[in-house]
Structure formats: C-alpha cells, structure tokens
Design a protein that fits this description.
The chain contains nine helices and ten strands. It is α+β, with helices and mostly antiparallel strands. It is globular and about 55 Å long.
C-alpha cells in the first residue's frame, strides 16, 4: 500500500477516533482495501467502509447486537453510538478478538445451523430480501477485458439465472442469512470458540444461499475435500447439493466469481487470463467441475 493511501485512511481514522474519545497513538493498519481495517492499542478494531455504505454499516451493528442477545459467537461492536460518519464514509468500532485461526468447514456449519435456527427478529435490523444479482449487470457492462460476444453471453446467462431464481423450488424455511458464509469469515480462538465475522451482506432469504458457498468451494473450486464437505453437511444436518434448486444457486455464485475476476482485470491486466479461464469454464469449454480457479489478483 502506498504512503499516500495510508495517510488518507489514517486521516479518516483520526476523526473517527476523536468522535469516540479514543487515541490513535500506535494505531496499525490491518488491511486497506475495499474496507479499511485499523487496530488500536486498546484492543479495538476500526472498520472504515467505502463511500456510500452508511446503511450497510448500520446494519452490521444492528445484526451483531441482535446476535449478542442470542449468545451467538460473533464479533462484538463497542457499546457506543455508531456507526460514526466522516464525510461520505461510515466507520464501525469492534472489540478485537483474541489470537485466532481461520475456521474449518465444520465450524462454519455449526455457526450457520445456529444462525439459521434463530427466531425471526422482533424489531427491525434493516435487513432487505437477498438479492444475489447485485452489481452483476454493472460488472459485466463495465468489464474492459470482455469481447462484445462474451459480454452478450454473460448478459444472456444472467437473464437465464434470474428466471430460474424466480421459480426456485421449495426448500428450507427462510430466515436471516449471513450472506457471505465461507471459512474465511470464521475465526476460531485458542479456546476453540468459533466466531462469525463480516455481516456486510446479511439479509433475509433461503438458507441454501449460505450453504451453497461451501458446496461451490467443494464442487467448483476443489478447495474442500469430499471428507471435509461431508463433515460440513453432517454438522449442519443438510446437504444443499441434493436440493433441486442447487444448480441455480451454484450458477449464480459462479457468475459472481467470474464477474469479480473481470472487475479485477479492468484494474490489473495481469488478472485477465484468470478471468477468461473462469468464463471459458462456465461456458463448458474445460470439462466437468472441479475447475480449481486461482485467485483473481
């Protein structure tokens, strides 16, 4: 990250910390990306959202406070009035987790089973109905690395998936979803307690959406062994791949991964090869899954 990037983010952090009566002395950047994460010396983590994400930041605070009421292990926000707004950016402040490792598939399954089994919230959390297609059309239209015929193919594929989504067969009882349920959003401390992280995409909808992320890790990416996937299903108590609507959700998640790669390629031409490889896979040019895609960076 450049010195200019760090300095600009730190300037926002100083205003956030001042509003919360906290010191930035010794503050360290954890990651400066789509969201900026900073660690303060008093075991507080500050998350500065990208511009225009005021509603999402408020939703994360509401959701994690609701989870705390139900004793669901998750990151906990500081008990202060937040988010804190600085110009067009919103910041949230969190209690830092103790030393931890990434979660396993089985740990994720246990957390999802608990989350999906919670009663419907009795007060508003600012949750909207799941929209699995958010930003897809925009990504396709803006992708500079796409040839016109491939762009049209992706747009046609998007239309097909939308039609299938609108006619999904009945499945599990709908409720609160994590929205971005993968192992990277689980942190397990040295005591063995697994915590859910990152509630930016929490919404209401079919639990199968959360389960499909792990199924795609296994079937599409080959990043989860058969044994690990079976453990995930056993702990959760359901195998989403047996549901007739699964191919539709798998197709949507794969399309999201393809368009994300093209979004990266627009900024970093070195990512274009991986983006085109992913596209060729979903077009049927590289045989059956797993396709074992590499990171698009």
């Amino acid at each position: 990250m450049t010195e200019q990037r760090v300095a600009a983010s730190f300037a926002v952090l100083q205003r956030v910390a001042a509003a919360a009566s906290l010191s930035t002395a010794g503050a360290e950047p954890i990651r400066l990306g789509e969201n900026d994460l900073w660690r303060l010396t008093n075991k507080v983590v500050v998350r500065i959202a990208r511009p225009g994400q005021q509603a999402a930041a408020a939703r994360e605070i509401a959701v994690t406070r609701w989870l705390a009421e139900h004793n669901v292990p998750a990151v906990r926000p500081l008990p202060i009035d937040q988010p804190i707004r600085v110009d067009d950016r919103s910041a949230t402040l969190w209690k830092e987790l103790p030393p931890h490792r990434p979660g396993t598939g089985a740990e994720l399954a246990s957390l999802l089973r608990t989350l999906h089994g919670l009663p419907q919230p009795t007060y508003g959390l600012g949750l909207a109905r799941l929209d699995p297609f958010v930003r897809l059309a925009e990504r396709i239209s803006a992708a500079s690395a796409l040839a016109d015929h491939d762009r049209q193919w992706l747009l046609n594929h998007l239309v097909t998936l939308r039609q299938q989504w609108d006619t999904l067969p009945a499945g599990l009882a709908e409720g609160v979803l994590h929205g971005d349920a993968w192992r990277g959003n689980v942190a397990t401390t040295e005591t063995g307690t697994a915590h859910l992280l990152d509630f930016e995409r929490t919404s209401l909808g079919p639990p199968e959406w959360d389960l499909t992320a792990t199924a795609v890790d296994h079937e599409t990416l080959g990043a989860l062994s058969t044994t690990e996937y079976e453990q995930f299903c056993t702990v959760y108590g359901h195998d989403v791949m047996t549901w007739p609507g699964y191919p539709t959700l798998r197709g949507i998640r794969e399309l999201r991964k393809v368009t994300f790669a093209f979004q990266i390629a627009s900024e970093n031409p070195a990512a274009a090869e991986q983006a085109h490889h992913r596209l060729a896979c979903i077009q049927g040019q590289h045989g059956p899954r797993p396709w074992r895609w590499h990171p698009a960076a």
